[in-house]
Amino acid sequence: MSQLSNWFLVIGAVLVSMALVGSVVKRLPFTPAILYLAFGYAVGTGGTGVHPIQDAGFIRSLTEVGMAIALFAVGLKLRSPLKLRAWRVPLCLGLPAMVVTIAVFAVIARLICGFPWSIALILAAVLAPTDPVLGSDVQVERTGDGDHVRFGLTGEGGLNDGLAAPVVWLGLGMAGLHGLGPWGTRWLLVEGIWFIAAGMAIGGLVSLLTARLVLYLRRSHAMAVGLEEFLGFGLIGLSFGLAGLLHASEFLAVFAAGVAFRHVERRTSMAAGVTPGKIHVAIDDEETATSPERAAFHLTETVLAFNAQAEHIAELALVTVLGALLANVRLEWQAIPLAAALFLVARPAAVAATLAGARTTGMQTWLIAWFGIRGIGSLYYLAVVLQAGVPEPWASRLASLVLTVVAISIVVHGVSATPLMHVYGRKVGRGRR
Asked: Looking at the domain assignment, is residue 37 inside a domain?
């Protein structure tokens, strides 16, 4: 039996099991990702082998698909106006907080592990992005939610997976594994400015044009779209593919596509006097079905719902693979102090510094600092650096440390997410009464 057949068997068994016991899992006081991780580790120890270095190409392709689906869904969740004031918290978390986290953590990694600066920077950049796949319990729950904690963490998860790439390439360049150009000019202009700006522009433009075409067809020709699931995956494919062809960030393009599609829906719905609360009540009315303005919200929510289901499947598959990978590396004790330093020192310091002027309460800042969940984004960048040819013994140590820190994050954040967000929800609810 081939390795692919083995994995079809494994993932199929997990999917059927989750379908059968899904109602029980929802009542557990921790996230399902912990179960996926444990199952994957058991599979890995049982001989269904996947190795982080030997199978880096397979892992990179698998994580790219999962990340693209998750990032588009994250963009669709964010229904706030595209104004700096509304987006201040996620923008601060997505770029300056990530840079501070990388700088602090690189120093810590060098001190704890004795890495050269290039490898320490690579490790810090790989572990810097927070995860859009595993952070659903602390992300926006309902359309239009502008809560600083949920909105900030959701927006951060969408932004920093693409913004981490230039720092990863910088570390590879310092290690002599990637060309940076004279005085780093190629890295700065092409892999920094162009990579980020073009990715956002491509995804936003593709989605804006598509959304406007949909509305035009409904207004001018009374054409229903139908097969909304195809529309969502089509936007992901167009944004991701075009960004890749133009050497721009595929992840930022997909995220921007989701944000732009939601933006068109928001403006269209507001112009017609439609709010999320009204449309949910009237979603089956004949007026809702025939009005292009009202149907825009219904269309976007349908695309989001389908993408959310695909995102859950991707989470299951990717975390199961991560658990199997963990069973095939040599665990190092340095992963424990590194995880503690990342979650309790580097991340909180970065969040406190960058949100100092933001309108967040002390509890909100603390929750944002704690829920810097690491996951599939780190697995993707690990595959990238291993494919780039990081030599031994650094490659094996990087794989072990990254996988272990991510596993620790899945457990500690998965156990704390439900109770802490319940406490926060009750406090916010009391404050609004």
From this structure: no
> What's the sign of the alpha-carbon dihedral 44, 381, 54, 60?
positive
Type of residue at 393: P
Residues 294, 297: Cα–Cα separation, whole Å = 6
Q: How far apart are CA 21 and CA 19, in angstroms?
A: 6
Contact 195, 249 (CB under 8 A): yes
Average pLDDT, the chain: 83
Residue 224 lies in a domain: yes
Q: Which two tokens stand for residue 23?
A: 């109602």
Please answer whether residues 72 and 257 qualify as being in contact, where contact means their C-beta atoms are separated by less than 8 angstroms. Answer: yes
Residues 335-370: pLDDT tens digits? 999 999 999 999 999 999 999 877 788 889 999 999
Give the chain's radius of gyration (CA, Å): 21
pLDDT by residue (tens digit) across 57-79? Answer: 989 999 999 999 889 988 888 87
Q: Token pair 């557990």 is at which residue?
A: 28
CA-nearest of 113, 24, 130, 128 to 67 is 130
Say which CATH number the domain at 119 has.
Answer: 1.20.1530.20
- Residues near 336 by beta carbon (within 8 Å), at least 6 away in sequence: 404, 408
Q: How far is the C-alpha of 138 from the C-alpha of 161, rounded, in Å?
A: 17
- 117 falls within a domain: yes
CA distances from 13 to 5, 20, 315, 316, 317 (A): 12, 11, 15, 11, 11
